[in-house]
């Protein structure tokens, strides 16, 4: 078999550089490019050296571990034991994930017949796995593995950020309680213009059984004031919450001023972990659609009511 050392060096240079950059992304680091290039060159030279000199101890577990440590020191520096251990763990997690993706993709595309055909049992009882992969297929499989790993990492990171902003919301009206998950929206600055009471949003379907027939769906397409004008036709006993309803003007994304139908609850409880606060000076706007596409949350919490580090909260105030 002919081995081209220059191809081995260049391939490992590209792979090591990509893995180091993925490690930096996982650990949210910004190493200098020349340090990453130097570290990648060290790893590539180590791989190419295997075909030039015969030093068994250099390719032992201790030797590989030492080269890995030198690569990480070169790319990211030391910065303390805990920091370096976390980088080391992330580096090998990325390595195992991408290498596993390459092997899995290659066997998916190239393996044919029985899987035992690629396995040889040695005289000592060991197993040898034959694995042949062309350079082009290796590059494609590696690129696919990196893409999937980055996608999974980005999804996990997004979910973690989202979880940090999720709270438990409980609304009390006339002694009855409704609860759901809510997302603290730091960009929500909607207030009642007259009283300066903060307005949060909830899906109208939560109160579907309490609202007049069809309102929960009609709120998505019909003006709120038109629905409110129908209360007179319902009679005195038609809707018990009639006196709690409010019309809140707001400006939509296209700059058009609209009216939002809101309700004045007895209280709203916002809980984040073991911490809970109760607010009485709050209005709840009704949304006729689904606030979250996947149903993760059904309310948008005003930042004055949230309890995350990025948004202030106000103490409970009487109505």
Can you walk me through this structure?
This is Sigma-E processing peptidase SpoIIGA. GO terms for molecular function: aspartic-type endopeptidase activity. The active site is at residue 185. Keywords: Membrane, Transmembrane, Transmembrane helix. With 319 residues, this protein is α+β, with helices and mostly antiparallel strands. It has helices at residues 5-26, 33-49, 61-76, 81-110, 135-164, 215-218, 224-229; strands at residues 119-121, 127-129, 166-173, 176-184, 199-203, 245-251, 257-263, 267-272, 275-279, 283-287, 299-301. The protein folds into 2 domains: 5-110 and 134-163; 165-301, Cathepsin D, subunit A, domain 1 (Beta Barrel), CATH 2.40.70. Helix content is 39%, strand content 19%. Strands 6-7-10-5-11-4-3-8-9 form a 9-stranded mixed β-sheet. Strand 3 (166-173) and strand 4 (176-184) form a beta hairpin. Helix 1 (5-26) crosses helix 4 (81-110), helix 3 (61-76) packs across helix 4 and helix 4 (81-110) packs across helix 5 (135-164). It is elongated and about 95 Å long. The chain starts with a helix and ends in an 18-residue tail after the last strand.
Helicity level = 25-40%
CATH architecture of the largest domain: Beta Barrel
Radius of gyration, in Å, reads 30 Å
Order of helices and strands: HHHHEEHEEEHHEEEEEE
What name is given to the CATH topology of the largest domain? Cathepsin D, subunit A, domain 1
Residue runs with pLDDT of under 50 for 5 or more positions = 308-319
Principal-axis shape: elongated
State the helix count: 7
Say how many strands there are.
11
* Largest sheet report: 9 strands, mixed
Proportion of beta-strand residues: 15-25%
**Widest sheet, order of strands:** 6-7-10-5-11-4-3-8-9
- Return the average pLDDT rounded to an integer: 78
Structural class: alpha+beta
Number of separate structural domains? 2
Distance between the termini: 84 Å
Active site: 185
Pfam family, one: Peptidase_U4
InterPro entries: SpoIIGA
GO molecular function, one term: aspartic-type endopeptidase activity
